[in-house]
Amino acid sequence: METIRLPRVMRETSIKEKRSGRTIGFVPTMGALHEGHMSLVRAAKAENDIVVASIFVNPIQFSPREDFDRYPRALSDDLEKLEDLADFVFLPEKESMYPPDFSTRVEVVGVSESMCGRFRPGHFQGVATVVLKLFNIVQPSRAYFGQKDYQQSVIIKRLARDLDLPLEVVVCPTVREADGLAMSSRNAYLNPEERKAATALYRALHAGAKAIKEGQRDTLQLSGAMRLTLSEEPLVSQVQYISAYDAETLQELETIEKKEIVLAGAVIVGTTRLIDNLLVNDLK
Ligand code: PAF
Question: What are the pLDDT digits (tens) for 135-159?
Answer without folding.
Answer: 999 999 999 999 999 999 999 999 9
